[in-house]
Amino acid sequence: IPPTIRHAMHLVQALGEKYLWVDAFCIVQDSLEEKEDQLKIVWVIYAQAQFTIVAEEGDSAYHGITGLRGIPPPRKLSPQAIHEVSDEHRIVELHWHSEKGWNPWYRRRWTYQESLFSRRRLYFGSSGVHWHCVELARIYSGLVLNSLGASSRFYASYL
Questions:
Q1: Percentage of residues in the chain with pLDDT exceeding 70?
Q2: Where are the beta strands (DSSP E) in the chain?
C-alpha cells in the first residue's frame, strides 16, 4: 500500500472514523467504460463524506502525507491584511492562500471535484495543515490565530 494511503488510514483511525474511500482502490481502473461511469458520480462520494483528506504535495501516492507524523517546526505566518469586525473579532488573511496553485494537488484534473463538492477538507501541505468546512477555516503551521489575533500553540496528537 503506497505511503499516502497508509498515512490516510492512520489518520482516519486516529480521528475515530471507521471507513476510508480511496479513489485508486474504489474506482475500477482496468475498465475504461466502468471507470468513466464511476467518475461521473464520484462527486456524490465527496459531497457525502465526513471530510476529504487532501495531500497537496507529491505527484503520486508514494509521496506520503506531509506533516502527519511528528510536529513540524513552528512557521511564521505573516498576515496580509487584518480587518476589524468588532472589538472582539478580527478577520486575518494569511499568506498560505497565495501558495495554492503551486502544489501538485491543484494541478490535477480530478481534484476540482474534491474541492467543489467536499463539505469538509483537511489539507496537508508544505505550509502546514489547513481545515476547511462551510463554517470554519483553521490553519496549523506551528501557530494558530484565535479570533482576537493572539497566537497560541496547537499540537494535536495525530498530527
A1: 54
A2: 52-55, 79-84, 90-94, 120-125, 128-133, 137-140, 144-145, 151-152
